[in-house]
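Structure request: Asp/Glu/hydantoin racemase, Marinobacterium aestuarii.
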Amino acid sequence: MKILLLNPNTSEVLTTQLTEVATRYAAVGTEIVPATGAFGVPYIANRAEAVIGASAALEILAQQHDQVDGAILAAFGDPGLGAARELFDIPIVGLAEAGMLTACMLGKKFAIVTFSTALGAWYQECVEWNQLQDRCCAIRMLDQPFNSIGAVRDEKEDLLAELALAAVRENGADVIVLAGAPLSGLADRIRHRVPVPMIDCCAAAIKQIEALVSLNLKAPETGTYCRPGAKDTTGLSAALAARIEHRS
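Returned structure:
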């Protein structure tokens, strides 16, 4: 199967990092097709940037959805996930959804650990969008600057491990979700320091999308994720306009 690994921000270094993790966890025969947003910001940290990232994600999906079997929206917070599921017939999973739902299979309460306080409000809304407020016992965030988004997992490795330990000891977390595409690959390096399961969201997403593709489920013909009716468009890319206008 072919899986589109869609990074909705503009950081190629994060796309490379995500691709390395996805390839490591992918089953034999799964091909990872990486893609990076053509416009936007290097990493998404708030609501406004998430809307921009969602637009970039829809553009990429419009161009490539008919060439792959499934897609991963590779940004924690899952910008545009609901819209993508409305417009496209392939299975699509997000990093946040995959990480949190995997955590729910492993414990009653999970904690989110991430690298910046700027992410807190958006991540809290992501928890609420997934209706997991009763399962998320904490969002733990580092409150200090970092030098490079591509190296934050290396630069802050020890501090992130300490945050995870604090979430277990002080918040009662049964599972830790390492949140944010820049932290992909970190769980394998620090899981021995934390006494509960630790989720790498990219790894969880690749296994979940493989399962959904293998199930060979039909696209919805009714319900909230049924494809919307055709509508005229103005100013959109040719591929996205064709999808919305039902010409593709």
